[in-house]
Design brief:
Helix content is 77%, strand content 4%. The protein is built from 10 helices and 2 strands. By secondary structure, the protein is mainly alpha-helical. It has helices spanning 3-25, 31-34, 47-53, 56-75, 77-97, 101-115, 117-128, 131-157, 159-169, 187-208, and strands at residues 174-177, 181-184.
Amino acid sequence: MSVVYQALCTFIVCFIRMSLVISFSWPAFTTSLFKSEDTPLHRPMTEFEVAIYGSMLSIGALIFTPVMGLLLDVLGRKKCMMLAAVTHVFAWVIIVLTNRVEALLSAMFIAGGGVASFLVIPVYIAEVCQPSVRGTMTSCMMLAYGLGMLVSFLLAIRKTCKNVLRLNRAMLDKLSAFGVFEIDAAFSLRLLSALVPYTVMLLQFAFLTS
């Protein structure tokens, strides 16, 4: 396997790490919005919900990470990585499709399953990369971590992000599914925006490591 191929594989798995780090920092700049009267959710968050909102992802990671450690040798590194990415995608699909507080908290808990990839990534890189570049490639994990934090907070302070939040608060006609949750009429566009990048990433990962 060429060094370029190894670097490309490392970039893909580090992209997964970067996207998960964005989920970690997301509550930091959305908590004040979700607990205000101008919230895009169906009601403002209570003090208790605000308290657990930022920790639900870590609670999920606490539960899913030991399970992923057991699955590493059962399913293999590649499948465990894809499983972690799928749980993260599923969590964002829930966030996109519903505006209920309970669903948001559940989605953050499910996203904790994606954090289990932090366990898989160094093992995968160490096995894929040759010894001469293994240290350099492994250090890309921490680079992706810092880059994810930077991107997340840069997006939070930009005017374009504020405009997106303003548009999300302007709910269109709603569809009620058995009274369990409400779906915005524009959910298809939001669903595509959430699924497309992760679908491309998963396809790249599948082909590169096949």
